[in-house]
């Protein structure tokens, strides 16, 4: 039997000793359980019905033999629990959150054992108190509310307790219509509903709003472009690289601070959370335009920290705990002391073998920090699962070593969030498992566990299969974007250098495509082993693998035409164009099943541009 996260202490009873959860059983809330646990117990009963086909009744009072008994203990830590199964009862005792987590353990047991549960005693609590997931809903995809609720359900199942959504412009601000008018933003009513939904499941929905850098839609608008660090930002030609690289707010204009405060003031009341993430990362242009003189006089570090401090103090004045990304302040960590003492520094690092120096520097400077690894899906059709495992493993280890108070696992959407967002579940589970218990299983071991528990693959192979797919990419989405944007003069040399580094991968493209066909065959075979509730992901994975194959072939044509590479034989370009267009039809169907329209049109435009390129229109501009 697998349990994710792995409990700290687990002891099984005598072989053959078990408890049968019958249709006549009750889930009994003892008087110690409050209103929140009553609502959560109802959710647990509904989930048991999905696993067993019947639901035990829910009541309050004193349990009898045959019942599941829930008891809240003031003597136990808030997130700890004790679960015992014997021949008479199931009993879950813990802090308020701990009882809820014990219910998730019971659900995982029922998923594998049905109604006949083995005798066991589990004592458990997390290594890291705050265990979150961060999902980009700005740079390409705005998820449907139904998808975000499903995400919250998954998080609860794996004992996570915080969710953040990255927003630059994809919220329907009342006074800033120019920045969201051509998108499909979340509304205040939807955030209020999601906040309630998350709270019911023990998850804190923490507001996150880009407030410094990464303000493309805001600072390219006619109404607010005058607040941009660089002149004429609204005249810059659109590029996916450009919108991530520029558009930092001008900190020397007093209107900038008031503008950002106004956005925060409208946004924060929608959340019950008393925390707020102002982001403040990747301020690439700071000190290079309108603030150049101030930067020369005071230093870039000074004008950076003064703006962040002003926002943090504004939040504290309004009863919120500030959070911000730590990439910039790592260059001058001693300045962390100037921020309000309760400020949380979100220390991110996404390398496969991420070093620990930044975590140490911030800890030595006295920062209160979260460690923030990544699910490693950005710019990929299929997530880099091995990379995410190694990265998350290390960052969780550093979090414990340097006393981070939280783990925030990130899933970014660079270059239009081209991948299916449900693919991020594997990385999400890694973060949940390794932040709860930092005795971390081996890669193959945890993948077998996830295959069975999450994907209901009885042979425990599914995650291993999909993990091998991303390694077959020879001409990835980012390479395709950079080739498409070679005409953007500012980034042309950078794009050329990047593409040159990638071209050698195409030498093995045909072999990689043969591997993909074998991997796809294994995915098709897995259908017979999977639960009906998880088979819906098969088509998105197969479609993503077809994308890798098609882009590998596309890359060989590009390398031949544009860079003089000789492969002996090339695919029929017209046929490949038709395949791309047929692929796009299925991709859009899958996209729309979980996401709003958002920037799907940009992805479509890129695919059509390449189809035209394949048909011989090489001077497309």
TrEMBL record:
Describe the location of the Glycoside hydrolase family 20 catalytic domain by residue ranges: 131-360
Span of domain Beta-hexosaminidase bacterial type N-terminal: 2-124
Give GO terms: molecular function aspect only: beta-N-acetylhexosaminidase activity
Pfam families from the UniProt entry: Glyco_hydro_20 (PF00728), Glyco_hydro_20b (PF02838)
Provide this UniProt record's keywords sorted from A to Z: Coiled coil, Glycosidase, Hydrolase
Active site feature: 282
Q: Which reaction does it catalyse?
A: Hydrolysis of terminal non-reducing N-acetyl-D-hexosamine residues in N-acetyl-beta-D-hexosaminides
Task: List, alphabetically, the SUPFAM superfamilies matched.
Answer: (Trans)glycosidases, beta-N-acetylhexosaminidase-like domain
Q: Which InterPro entries match?
A: Beta_hexosaminidase_sua/sub (IPR025705), GH (IPR017853), Glyco_hydro_20_cat (IPR015883), Hex-like_dom2 (IPR029018), HEX_bac_N (IPR015882)
Which segments of the protein form a coiled coil according to its record? Answer: 492-526
The EC number of this protein is 3.2.1.52
Entry's Gene3D superfamilies?
A: Chitobiase/beta-hexosaminidase domain 2-like, Glycosidases
GO BP annotations listed: carbohydrate metabolic process; glycosaminoglycan metabolic process
Give a Gene Ontology cellular component term annotated to this protein: membrane
Similarity-based family: Belongs to the glycosyl hydrolase 20 family.
- Name of the molecule in the record: beta-N-acetylhexosaminidase
